Amino acid sequence: xxxxxxxxxxxxxxxxxxxxxxxxxxxxxxxxxxxxxxxxxxxxxxxxxxxxxxxxxxxxxxxxxxxxxxxxxxxxxxxxxxxxxxxxxxxxxxxxxxxxxxxxxxxxxxxxxxx
Length: 115
What we know:
Layout: E1 3-7, E2 10-12, E3 18-25, E4 33-39, E5 45-51, E6 58-60, E7 68-73, E8 78-83, E9 92-100, E10 102-105, E11 109-113
Parallel strand pairs: 2-11
Antiparallel strand pairs: 1-3, 3-8, 4-5, 4-9, 5-6, 7-8, 9-10, 9-11
């Protein structure tokens, strides 16, 4: 059974940091490009960041550049999203996604940025 399990979300004040993790199982993790995608209630999905299969290339949405860092540890089948200098507009449910032809999604983790 394929599983992607996110963790690390929570409530943080503006300017704070959070580190999201996503652990994969049931598929060959290092064959998949991993991404983070977020969704604000009532709005569509917004791509946040992606990382290549070996971690050598990373990509970010413009508004996340310089604040978010994606990384992965293939030995642990885990992808991370370090989020710094968080803003209220970063409040969303964050999903991890594995893609290699077909796609797999996690269940999401809530991030709330509020004072």
